[in-house]
Amino acid sequence: MAGRRVLTILGHPSGDSFCAAAEAAYAEAAGAAGAEVTRLRLGEMAFDPILRHGYRKRQDLEPDLERARAAILAAEHVVFVYPIWWGSVPALLKGFLDRSFLPGFAFAYRGDGPSLPDKLLKGRSGRLIVTLDTPGWFNWLAYGAPGHRMMTRTVLKFCGISPVARSTFAPVRNSTPAARAAFLTRLAAAGRRDALSGR
């Protein structure tokens, strides 16, 4: 039986960042284990990251966003790779979410009254691969890990993507080559496991 359909989304704008290396380690290992892997690099996509009219008026999707949404719908496992900047995700990734995870695609409310939304992306699992300069324990203790909580709870699980695993490397600043290599090795192992999950 074939491995799962896995989508990786690199949310760091630079293709030569440590996040890019992390995405590659995961994606290549998942592919080698039999997954059908699709890879998106937001820094190479052409789209306006600003939701110009909020939800009041339709903003046409650029071809790259159309392709990205098709890839999300086709995926069984969606992986976001990004750094934590100022406690949250990079502006490029936030813009991608604003423009692509829209009502009618990622979630839908019933009627005009207050209600919990339908989760339109149910049936998919997720993984967050996250880097930050703040030590991981301090990020949790002092700040409550807002970037992790935002992506896990108010984006992915809100839209039905669950369960969501996390792989975090911190702090990147002053990390040794050996520590980085060990993290990439762990990501490759995670990619292999995720490729075979659900068999």
Automatic annotation (TrEMBL):
The keyword DNA damage does not apply. InterPro entries: Flavodoxin_fold (IPR003680), Flavoprotein-like_sf (IPR029039), NAD(P)H_dehydrogenase_qn (IPR051545). It comes from the Bacteria. Pfam families: Flavodoxin_2. The keyword Oxidoreductase applies. GO terms for molecular function: NAD(P)H dehydrogenase (quinone) activity. Keywords: Oxidoreductase. One of its GO terms (cellular component) is cytosol. Residues 5-184 form the Flavodoxin-like fold domain. Belongs to the NAD(P)H dehydrogenase (quinone) family. PANTHER family: NAD P H OXIDOREDUCTASE-RELATED, NAD(P)H DEHYDROGENASE [QUINONE] 1 ISOFORM 1. This is NADPH:quinone reductase. The lineage of its organism: Bacteria, Pseudomonadati, Pseudomonadota, Alphaproteobacteria, Rhodospirillales.
